[in-house]
Design brief:
Layout (H helix, E strand, L loop, with lengths): L3 H4 L8 H18 L6 H17 L1 H19 L1
Helix pairs in contact: 2-3
């Protein structure tokens, strides 16, 4: 029986998860620190640009993909 993992369906989401993680973390840091501006729209545009540029680099994607599961495990313990 074929499962989702056997079909390789998760390979298509290989760039989506690092993009969302970079977007959310960057937006949260910008909102919390208010370094560039206090407006949420400007911070969202900046966070989107940072996440897009991060996904364009293979090294950033590999680092985020490697660190995210370990960070989750450490957060649980």
């Amino acid at each position: 029986m074929a499962t989702v993992l056997d079909l390789g369906l998760l390979e298509y989401f290989g760039l989506l998860f690092p993009f969302l993680l970079l977007l959310i973390v960057t937006y949260a840091v910008l909102q919390k620190t208010k370094t560039l501006s206090g407006e949420p729209n400007i911070n969202a545009i900046i966070a989107f640009a940072v996440a897009f540029l991060g996904v364009m680099s293979n090294s950033v994607v590999s680092i985020v993909s490697f660190i995210a599961p370990w960070f989750t495990v450490m957060l649980l313990f």
